[in-house]
Amino acid sequence: MLHELRGDLLLSRADVLAHGVAPGDHFDSGLAKALRERFPALYKDFRHYCRQRSPRPGELWLWRGVDGDGRAVRVASLFTQPPAEQPGGHPGRAETSHVNRALHALKKLVVDDGFGSVALPRLATGVGGLAWEHVEPLIRAQLGELDAHVAVYADYAPGVAADEPFARPAP
Based on the number of CB atoms within 10 Å of its own CB, is 46 exposed (0-12), middle (13-18) or buried (19 or more)? Predict the structure, then answer.
């Protein structure tokens, strides 16, 4: 079930938060930067994973950690962009083929692990450079038929908790 929401994805109560990145990304802008600031261990573990595994566009990496309140946090980094061509360079633009494969990997993760909800932004439309009208149909095709709730944070509102129809009560 797809839900388009207005709010701050970082305040989501979804089982999994997803965002788009490039292999070896520096997490220095957009949602990735906010995730790096909120969960420093995420970025450290991401860098280690990228050095050890050399992920490719279209793949996914799942990080499991805890937030400041001790609540379990899962962040799926979807490799929607190609890596920088040289160390210290900027990643390439996202490609719909990479986005589609990464969304397929996310769908498999949600089904295989039995997650009831996932939250993601307008994937690959910021730093990734794709137009929403090219990405939205991919999200609908890959995630629209899931038995899980899929919250697409279509309208970013900093510090505003969205009215998520699936939200678990705070502990």
Answer: buried
* Tens-level pLDDT at each residue, the chain (171 residues): 999 999 999 999 999 999 999 999 999 988 999 999 999 999 999 999 999 999 999 999 999 999 888 999 999 999 999 998 887 788 889 999 999 999 999 999 999 999 999 999 999 999 899 999 999 999 999 999 999 999 999 999 999 999 999 875 554
- What's the CA angle centered on 80, arms 122 and 161, to 5 degrees? 30
Give yes or no for a contact between 57 and 98, defined as CB atoms under 8 angstroms apart. yes
Q: Which two tokens stand for residue 57?
A: 């566009």
List the beta strands (DSSP E) in 28-159.
60-66, 72-79, 117-121, 149-156
